[in-house]
Amino acid sequence: MTVRPYRKNTTHAPVPGTGKGKATTALDVTDIYVDDGTGHNVISILKNLGDGVVLGDIELTFLADTIKTVDYPGAVLLITDQTGKV
């Protein structure tokens, strides 16, 4: 997981969903997007702290590698979003 500080006046493109994260106090997860810095597919987990937003990126390859390590006979594991999209 990559944790990157939010900086005003940054040259990176805004993370999709950060406006939504600023509007709620609940923990939120963004849709999949391409990280501007790495070019990898990621999701971001964000939390509004009142005077700012804490954001952590998780690369989808990390999630896929984690799923591959599960050794449970007969199990089928999937990564889905909150709507059930694989």
From TrEMBL:
Residues 1-10 have a biased composition (Basic residues). Gene3D superfamilies: PAS domain. Residues 1-22 are annotated as: Disordered. This is Methyl-accepting chemotaxis protein. It comes from Shewanella benthica KT99.
